[in-house]
Amino acid sequence: MKLDAIIVFDFGGQYCHLIRRRIREQKVYSEIVTCDTSPGQIEILRNKFNIKGIIFSGGPSSVYDFDSPKFNLKILDLNIPILGLCYGHQLIAFNFGGKIALGKKKEYGITQVIIDKPADILSGLKKEEKVWMSHGDKVCNLPSEFEVLAHTENCPIAAFRHKEKPLYGIQWHPEVIHTENGMKMLCNFIFKICKCKANWKAEAFIEDIIEKIKQIVDKEKVIVALSGGIDSTTATILASKALEKNLYAIFVDHGFMRDGEPEFISNTFKKFDINFISVEAKKRFLEELKGITDPEEKRRIIGKEFIRIFEKIAKKVGAQYLLQGTIYPDRIESGFRKHSDKIKTHHNVAGLPTKIKFKKIIEPLKDFYKDEVRDIAKKLGLPKEITLRQPFPGPGLAVRIVGEVTPEKIRVVKKADKIVREEIEKRNLNENLWQYFAILTDTKSTGVKGDARAYGYTVAIRVVESKEAMTASFTRVSYDILEEISTNITNEIPEVTRVVYDITHKPPATIEWE
Ligand code: XMP
Asked: Where are the domain boundaries for CATH 3.40.50.880 in the chain?
């Protein structure tokens, strides 16, 4: 059975991936394609999916820029409903002869919009709605075949529809959570206008993924980078179904794992019916990181060391391919799109060295978000200890030690992390949390311990809630629990004189400190 799908055209907007994410949250399949995708390429996609709608994302350009991203006008002849958001909204208007005013006055942040006609995409909305705007240019004039649906103080045409064709535009961003009824607006498009059926599940892709791995690899050997986290474990299990004994799972202990982790991983995976190889490489990583304080450099060094170890083992076992558990957010943050910025170098994406001795790197989960990977893992029958584990970055505690990584700092952050985990888990708070951990900051401060002056480390505690790690909120952990964590850390770790709690959301912060 072919699934219904909405295709997102990427014009370089920073929220483009969120559009796809919101559609998938509604159990409708969605894929992002480049903005110049041709009708022929849409036809190819139609072999796999019923394409019921297209969304043009926002983007940083102005429609009048010489090199502004454009779309193939023949897309308009396909008679597929199209919704333009922000730059996409302006582009539709522009292509039909509308006038765009170049942005002298910007509209940025939460804005009150007046809904003039609560129809189609805006049906069921109140007279006034709180929406998230982020634009300079605006549509100021539309040809007569269009109808204005909403305006703001600064923007006379904040939403429109074509009178006969299924074409819609919204100047604001319904995909951003600050647009209070953004989901309702998107659902109007997905379900009322495009008439999609909500029948997509990540698990439905299991057989496809296994088949694709078989096709790429054929009878050759593969090594999989296994960190013990949900992503790499799920990738390993999928690959082992495709390759059986031609798969070698490699766990590298770089020395930056949490307390008890290497043992947990070895014990867990020795029970699975896979070739499991554990590599002890603590000294090597520590030496390479000596004197390094820049977080991006740390990530690149760690990425490179991982690869060199994998290459060595691949040579030994005769493997040609490397398989990784990379997921979609890793790629977004590493800046893989043409017009998007790099937030941080995920060790397994942009942190890879340019020359690699593998025929190919296979990333079967590269289009999925973590909660979707969790669904796949559950379907594969993985135990709760794995499906419910909190995410842990590949470079491990090395990116939770601000500044140079030293054996002393590793010891301190490991102990602090253990205390945070114990305090949260003994109260069963973990099931609703995305991550809870300790960071060793690079700040020292004066304290007094046992009537004597002490000068020691400052530990920060980070507890966040999130759905997919693209955005996150700090958790309002009770003062009683924070007090117990703080007391235990300062009592049990002599090197620590101060504990602070991180009250920053993502954005503007990221979840990890480095
Ligand atoms: P940030 O810190 O960017 O993290 O908000 C988002 C999620 O990704 C995890 N993370 C990583 N995972 N390699 C990984 O495999 C990395 O280099 C890496 N950096 C961050 C982080 O723990 C959070 O869940």
From this structure: 3-193
